[in-house]
Predict the structure.
Amino acid sequence: MPASALSSSMQDYLKVIWTTQEWDDSPVTSRALAERFGVSPSTVSEALKKLAAAGLVDHERYGTASLTDAGRAAALAMVRRHRLVETFLVDYLGYAWDEVHDEAEVLEHAVSDDFVERLSARLGHPEFDPHGDPIPTADGRLPALDARPLVDVEAPARLRVVRVSDEDPALLRHLVDLGMTLGVTLRLVERHDFAGTLAVELDGTQRDLGHVAAAAIFVAPA
């Protein structure tokens, strides 16, 4: 079943299940989905029952949810829509990277499959969105991204920022203030694990970065 044939709610559930496991391969629970959507576990259970009946998820009552092959294809189609819309908003309408997520959450449900493909062509078929997230191709393939969370890197190391989680707009604005945007090179000087910080040098200035922020930043060797 193509993503465009699903309700907005079903599209959202599939996309969230996939993106949750994109960052963390732990099982996705009904409880986690309820917290993510701000609804009761029983509401989530009913939604997952409908998705299971449509052959899109495998689900244990009040347990974990996983995507079937058909569910994964539909989820990737929604992720493609979302990330292409974010790219358009930044490249053509002058949005900042902390402003586009919520706009894309709305617009991704309003556009047709044909619009998405025309948008991709106009943008030059980008492989990554403004946050460095890989954009699935029309047939569901993901471009390779060799990166790891900054919080997991051992010091010392010279690194390049290649991806940042867009979950928290305030964090994105904070990183802009620090000059820590996509493509910049930084040096991880040392870890202060007991204090929950990393000493990072950027443009000759050293500062401490908390583990929460460092977990949202993905880096590759520079």
